[in-house]
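Ticket #4471: structure output looks truncated?

Reporter: J.K.
Steps to reproduce: submitted the chain below (288 residues) through the standard prediction queue, then opened the result file.
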Amino acid sequence: MTAPQFEVSIIIPAYNEETGIKDTLEKLVEGKYHEKYEIIIVDDGSTDKTKEISESFPVRVITHTVNKGYGAALKTGIRKSTTDKIVFMDSDGQHDPSYLDELVRLLEDHEMVIGCRTEDSFQVKNRKAGKKVIRWVGEFLVEQKLPDYNSGFRGFQKDLIVRMMHIMPNGFSFSTTSTLGFMKEGYNIATFPIVVEERVGRKSSVKFFKDGPKTLMLLLRIIMLFNPLKIFLPVSLLFGFVGVAFGTYGYFIFDRFSNGAIILTVFGMMLFFIGLIADQISLLNRKQ
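Returned output as attached by the reporter:
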């Protein structure tokens, strides 16, 4: 018997989600989505019954022997998929499968589709401040208003996300990086509203203090990857202006251009040229 030919793959990464994955898969099967789409569960080294529960449903299950991270699980799913269109959704019951058909419909005419969470959707309160900072930095870099940049419910044209796989992180920031990457490259992005429920099962593994340094590194990585001149140029101009102003003041008041002024001016010039080099490296890194 010939295996069914699908046009869309639904990739669901799962790590220790034995409660949430059961609820998610029951909804998918009840809605007969497994008959329309290729559903791939990527068990990211779970130590509970996530794999066993997933294998009891009519879906593909791919297993990591160790926990590699959210982004790494998505990459595995992308590589193993057999279709031209990719959709991500979470395994913890937050995403309602009834939105899948709308997302797939929009994906016909767009390179990326993002399910944007409405105001009444469930959100963890202690992450809001960090998300606002990341949003501000992202909008500053791409010079556009960002959609729900870290929503886990999204779809891509497979060939385009494959081209960017080398810059996608293995951790939780895959969604953020892919959003900025597609916007920076000028791809056509569609959004539509979704309501997200509170996760089922264990608490989220993202913690405020534990992941604070990771968020800071994410911000620095985003800056250097997508638009380093946005940072280097104003800082270099600031140091150069202060150096010249300080030196001019010293020349007219003390009849000398001070060593400090020279250092500040030269430092500003060095930052400018380093920014130019960083911008060229950034452009090369975004291309395969």
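Triage note (M.O.): checked the attachment and the full token line is present. The mean pLDDT is 87.
Status: closed, working as intended.
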